[in-house]
Amino acid sequence: MELLFVRSINVSDKNKDAILSSKLAHDFYLSAHGSYYINLNAEAEKLQQASVERILDGVEALAKVQGRSLIFHPGYYLKSSMSDAYSSVRNNLSLLPYRGVDYRLETTGKGTQFGTIEELVALCKEISSCKLCIDFAHVHARNNGSLRSYADFAGILQFVSDELGRAALDDLHIHMGGIEYGVKGERNHLPLQESDFNYVACLQALKDFDVKGCVICEGPKVEHDALLLKRTYEKF
């Protein structure tokens, strides 16, 4: 399960014991999606620092309930070149102390956002506390519907394996869901069966590459689609 820290942190001293008790009783993988207000390439240094603090606040809250991964979008290109944005994001990520929670860098769905699969894999190679979160729907939308066939999904997993090793596939965090998009990328999430996202091919690739870790379903019918993914995967 994934907690939503996207607009505010919803773990408090009042509810943390109940969350932890439920997690231990049912033995599930617990992560959190970090703040939407993170930009490690912001033009003002104080805004970059505020983003670092939001990440650390999320890690602190997640650690209270024994969560494993904080997922977040690293930032935006703004007026920077891609290489300058990469340097800014890398430098800020290198400041983050490891506190028992993995920093999961999520692939992004718009061309204005920093976070291609290539950029994030490169960062994970450089910074040991950072790991990958592949949002396949975002990759699909960012490139105007690029993930059509089994080979498209398999190509991503092979790239991750080649660059980060088998260990990355043995502990991979994944987001999946339907998505609406245009030439500029992501617009909004959709129910899986109302989108063109090829979730069957995606799941088949995960099965064939023996990927381990966690799949989080996103969208307006999250419970329905999570069960759809689970039952589809179990048929392979």
Automatic annotation (TrEMBL):
Which Pfam families does the annotation name?
A: AP_endonuc_2
What SUPFAM superfamilies does the entry give? Xylose isomerase-like (SSF51658)
Q: Which SMART domains match?
A: AP2Ec
| Residue span, Xylose isomerase-like TIM barrel domain | 3-222
InterPro entries from the UniProt entry: AP_endonuc_2 (IPR001719), Xyl_isomerase-like_sf (IPR036237), Xyl_isomerase-like_TIM-brl (IPR013022)
Please list the GO terms describing molecular function. DNA binding; DNA-(apurinic or apyrimidinic site) endonuclease activity; phosphoric diester hydrolase activity; zinc ion binding
What GO terms describe the biological role, i.e. biological process, of this protein? base-excision repair
Query: What is this protein called in UniProt?
Result: TIM barrel protein
Species in which this protein is naturally found: Geomesophilobacter sediminis
